[in-house]
Amino acid sequence: MTAEHDNSRNQVLTAPGDKAHQIDIADLRREYTRGGLRRRDLTDNPLDLFERWLKQACEAQLADPTAMCVATVDEQGQPYQRIVLLKHYDEKGMVFYTNLGSRKAQQLANNPRISLLFPWHMLERQVIVLGRVEKLPPLEVLKYFHSRPKDSQIGAWVSRQSSRISTRGILESKFLEIKQKFQNGEVPLPSFWGGYRVHIDSVEFWQGGEHRLHDRFLYQRQESGWVIDRLAP
């Protein structure tokens, strides 16, 4: 066992391998009691139910209700995940924006299959979307880009997303440089910034239930419309 005394904080720092440092996560659990999801609660189109749940997430004042975990896969089959904000949805699909030189964009160029997860934990809900992406047309990207706060527009110019940098100071100085450059004019759309529309193939709604008897319903797109199945928890 190893330990070091840190006098500045007046406490003992134990090594990661020390049992005193470990948290027993096996016993961390709680009961899900907010209610169930029944077939009578479902809508014919999954976007209608998604909209209802999203509205309830907003009304519950959840932090970042439009935050979704975006999963992609690289050429070696290695999955990657990151949190991105949903910016629009309609019958054509779900939309998000990103740096087109980012790791996710490179992976989507090789494999357009994507998974989205909305983790609304406080409501004991999850929504999983599977689909395929297509790049948004430039005019649609431009319209959204200029709707963003100016500092966010400048921030898009600053970062070569996923590239290695030595210090944060590089980003901060670059931000100030570009802010000075565009202080009296419109910020142009970077050629390396764009968006994607996710064409939805399936949507799964998960509602926590007592005794781990969760409710899960899967919508799958067919030529005749949406087919709905209840899944075992």
Automatic annotation (TrEMBL):
Its EC number is 1.4.3.5. Binds 1 FMN per subunit. PROSITE patterns: PYRIDOX_OXIDASE. Pathway: Cofactor metabolism; pyridoxal 5'-phosphate salvage; pyridoxal 5'-phosphate from pyridoxamine 5'-phosphate: step 1/1; Cofactor metabolism; pyridoxal 5'-phosphate salvage; pyridoxal 5'-phosphate from pyridoxine 5'-phosphate: step 1/1. Residues 193-233 form the Pyridoxine 5'-phosphate oxidase dimerisation C-terminal domain. Its cofactor is FMN. Catalyzes the oxidation of either pyridoxine 5'-phosphate (PNP) or pyridoxamine 5'-phosphate (PMP) into pyridoxal 5'-phosphate (PLP). This is Pyridoxine/pyridoxamine 5'-phosphate oxidase.
